[in-house]
Design goal:
By secondary structure, the chain is an alpha/beta fold. It is 46% helix and 15% strand. It has helices spanning 2-22, 27-35, 39-49, 64-77, 93-97, 113-123, 137-145, 169-176, 187-196, 209-220, 246-262, 279-291, 322-325, 346-350, 365-373, 382-394, 396-412, 416-424, and strands at 56-61, 82-87, 104-107, 127-131, 150-155, 181-184, 203-205, 237-244, 268-274, 296-298, 313-315, 331-334, 355-357, 376-378.
Length: 429
């Protein structure tokens, strides 16, 4: 195959060079390279101690969001299948390590033909499932040679994706012709997949499994639950800023400055949840807050019974808490939207919270839906954010109205997991 030869002769060596070059400057990439050492040996050890099953289902995903989309499907079939997980990004490594519903897991090694064939020999999957889009050609071509069924779940291809560029379509068709079934989150995504798939590709709209996931997590949190030590002493309205980067925080903190200057009668507690709360990031945030004269405390420093009445900012310097923390917010800002791509807007919507985010939301179908319905609002800069905060903080009924719209959007989109499973189960023994 011409495309397979070109990919292995040009792209794979280039990827190796690029990753190792970037690793000299980027600790996250270095972690990914280190984590890929001896992945076959690690997987072999895990599989050796895993129970036998008539089905072995191999799920692959890029990072945290794609893992969340796979979880409802994994947990529905785990009792009669052996579950193997592979992933690309170091961001999801700890999340996977804590996950109890799999039998083996590891980074996906570099996509060489040799690695792909070795993984297939080792795992012996009944079915290979990709979540969202992190499709690697050699793995797919090798699976096709073994006549292994391959399913894409929660398939997403946003309107600005470079994958839809005309000159890439012949190459992508050579890959997607080997995917047995594409399950997409929306009809618009299905239409974009049709552009990069051969005419006979099977494409079904099943919805986004994350709607089911976030809804179940939301209803499991009891109202009135104390999520932070000393939460009962909070004396102001609460703004939750979830999964933020430095770019988001610059806009957010400037908006808060403008709000304090123009509306001194409005007082806020800001609960700031960085996307990656490394010690370096936390020190950076504390330094900025100190220069602004804002008092702050980190979650790791908090103790039962402490008084948070005069605390301006709470920095959540641990992971895994954000989805529940949205419950205590009056307003939610979702990060990533001033950095590169907005993060999970479903979680605050499931908690019936009014949502605001920055201009970079093209990657998230659900953000566009929430904005269109009136549950969320896009702001382009700190001035717009400050004006919106002022309006919403003065009007509790408007906040409730928008929050309920968001919850309704979540409820209207439930059922994607079962629709996906209806298709997936036909490929299991």
């Amino acid at each position: 195959m011409v495309w397979e030869s070109l990919y292995n002769a040009i792209v794979v060596p280039a990827l190796y060079v690029v990753f190792h070059t970037i690793a000299k400057f980027d600790a996250k990439v270095r972690d990914g390279i280190a984590g890929r050492r001896n992945v076959l040996g690690k997987l072999e050890s895990q599989l050796h101690s895993a129970p036998e099953s008539k089905n072995t289902v191999w799920f692959h995903f890029a990072s945290v969001g794609e893992f969340e989309q796979a979880k409802p499907v994994i947990e529905a079939i785990k009792y009669d299948s052996r579950i193997v997980l592979t992933y690309f990004s170091p961001s999801v490594h700890d999340n996977v390590a804590r996950y109890s519903h799999c039998d083996a897991s590891s980074y996906l090694p570099l996509d060489t033909r040799r690695n792909a064939e070795a993984l297939l020999r080792l795992i012996k999957p009944t079915l290979l499932v990709y979540s969202k889009f992190d499709i690697w050609p050699n793995l797919l071509w090798s699976a096709a040679r073994q006549k292994l069924p391959v399913i894409l779940i929660a398939g997403t291809l946003h309107a600005k994706s470079k994958r839809t560029l005309p000159f890439l379509r012949p190459f992508l068709r050579s890959i997607h012709r080997h995917i047995t079934l594409h399950c997409t989150i929306s009809e618009s995504d299905a239409e974009r997949f049709r552009r990069i798939c051969p005419p006979d590709a099977r494409i079904e709209v099943t919805g986004d499994t994350r709607f089911d996931r976030v809804y179940q997590r939301a209803i499991a949190v009891e109202p009135g639950t104390e999520l932070l030590p000393g939460q009962s002493t909070l004396s102001r309205q609460v703004l939750i800023a979830g999964s933020t980067y430095a770019d988001d925080e610059r806009v957010l903190l400037k908006a808060c400055d403008l709000l304090r200057r123009d509306s001194p009668n409005i007082c806020l507690h800001l609960v700031l949840v960085p996307h990656e709360p490394t010690p370096g990031r936390v020190r950076q945030i504390r330094g900025i807050l100190s220069l602004k004269g804002l008092s702050c405390v980190c979650f790791s420093e908090m103790t039962e019974g402490m008084n948070l009445r005069d605390t301006d900012v709470i920095i959540v310097d641990t992971v895994g808490m954000l989805a529940k923390l949205y419950l205590m917010g009056d307003i939610v800002f979702v990060g990533g939207s001033f950095h590169g791509s907005v993060h999970n807007v479903m979680e605050p919507a499931a908690m019936a919270k009014p949502i605001l985010f920055g201009p970079t939301v093209h990657n998230a179908y659900e953000a566009l839906v929430l904005q269109d319905k009136g549950a969320a609002q896009l702001v382009n800069n700190a001035n717009e954010m400050a004006c919106l905060l002022k309006d919403w903080l003065h009007e509790p009924k408007e906040r409730v109205r928008r929050g309920l719209i968001g919850r309704k959007v979540i409820e209207e989109n439930l059922g994607a997991t079962e629709r996906t499973l209806t298709h997936l189960r036909t490929y299991l023994r």
